[in-house]
Amino acid sequence: MRIVVLTGAGISAESGVPTFRDAGGLWEGHRVEDVATPEGFERDPDTVLRFYDARRRAVASVIPNPAHRALARLEGAIGSDLLVVTQNVDDLHERAGSRRLAHMHGELRRALCTSCGARPREDRDLLDRPACHECGERMLRPDVVWFGEMPYELDRIEQAIVACDVFVSIGTSGAVYPAAGYVALAAAFGARTVELNLEPSDAVVPFDDARAGRASDLVPAWVD
Ligand code: BJW
């Protein structure tokens, strides 16, 4: 049975990573257009770099929770029949042991060189303007996908969705495209669709099975 799992901020919430759109969420104190658009970065790069440096350091201090670990166990059981597509820029899935993973909105622990396009692993604060390992320019930004930019690995993700038997959405509000459209794509190609979320999301089409609760309870129960 081929399974595609789409994860969002809700799966990392119980590890201590704030979600975006809940009260007190990540955008609190920031306008989305100031910190998560290319235009915001152009206007005020220091504010954006400070925001992402702080988040990268915060994520380094938290650990995967039972939901991340359950998905890693599922990969251990079914191997290449599973693809985890995450919208999250943290690395909690890989730290839990997942390897078949697509980071469609990029990764906080990587930088993107705006001069040569290199995407090096980068643990230094980007606000300090470190030089690119490839070309030496001091023009690094976080390797994350902002509004108006093209998400990563779309071909691989869509091929897996149209071929899957089960599509599972975990901890995402369904507010951001193209990820929000994946349940409709999966349903159109005959997959059974399942949602595991604190509360039912704003999905474009209803899920076949929607379970409400905390990811750290629902995901292990669904996997095991
Ligand atoms: C729990 C829980 C617990 C809490 N247990 N659950 C079509 C229509 C309209 C607009 C568009 C459209 N297509 C494109 C657009 C424009 C735009 C868009 O979607 N705008 C919307 C505002 C409508 N999209 C884009 O610009 C995208 N690019 C693009 O489309 O390129 C062109 C293209 C064309 C054709 C095909 C393909 C592409 C890029 C979007 C980039 C999003 N980037 C961000 C920031 C990343 C960097 C960073 O982290 O700062 O990604 S925005 C932010 O939202 C982040 C997230 O990955 C993303 C999704 O958020 P998520 O994960 O759903 O979090 P929340 O907070 O919204 O929800 C949390 C959920 O968890 C809630 O439901 C809670 O209930 C639940 N929860 N605790 C279980 N313990």
UniProtKB/TrEMBL annotation:
Subcellular localization, as worded in the UniProt entry: Cytoplasm
Signal peptide start-end: none
Keyword Membrane among UniProt keywords: no
GO cellular component terms listed in the entry, alphabetical order: cytoplasm
Binding site for NAD(+): 8-27, 87-90, 171-173, 197-199, 215
Residues that bind Zn(2+): C113, C116, C132, C135
Binding site for substrate: Y52, R55
Residue ranges constituting the Deacetylase sirtuin-type domain according to the UniProt record: 1-224
Enzyme Commission designation: 2.3.1.286
Keywords noted in UniProt: Cytoplasm, Metal-binding, NAD, Transferase, Zinc
Cofactor comment text: Binds 1 zinc ion per subunit.
Gene Ontology molecular function: histone deacetylase activity, NAD-dependent; NAD+ binding; protein-malonyllysine demalonylase activity; protein-succinyllysine desuccinylase activity; zinc ion binding
PROSITE patterns reported in the protein's UniProt record: SIRTUIN
Pfam family for this entry, one: SIR2
Catalytic activity: N(6)-succinyl-L-lysyl-[protein] + NAD(+) + H2O = 2''-O-succinyl-ADP-D-ribose + nicotinamide + L-lysyl-[protein]; N(6)-acetyl-L-lysyl-[protein] + NAD(+) + H2O = 2''-O-acetyl-ADP-D-ribose + nicotinamide + L-lysyl-[protein]
Main location (coarse class): cytoplasm
Cofactor(s) essential for the protein: Zn(2+)
Residues forming the catalytic site: H105
Family under the similarity heading: Belongs to the sirtuin family. Class III subfamily.
Biological role: NAD-dependent lysine deacetylase and desuccinylase that specifically removes acetyl and succinyl groups on target proteins. Modulates the activities of several proteins which are inactive in their acylated form.
PANTHER family to which the protein is assigned, alphabetical: NAD-DEPENDENT PROTEIN DEACYLASE, NAD-DEPENDENT PROTEIN DEACYLASE SIRTUIN-5, MITOCHONDRIAL-RELATED
HAMAP family per record: Sirtuin_ClassIII
Domain comment as written in the entry: 2 residues (Tyr-52 and Arg-55) present in a large hydrophobic pocket are probably involved in substrate specificity. They are important for desuccinylation activity, but dispensable for deacetylation activity.
Protein name stated in the entry: NAD-dependent protein deacylase
Organism, scientific name: Microbacterium allomyrinae
Gene for this chain: cobB
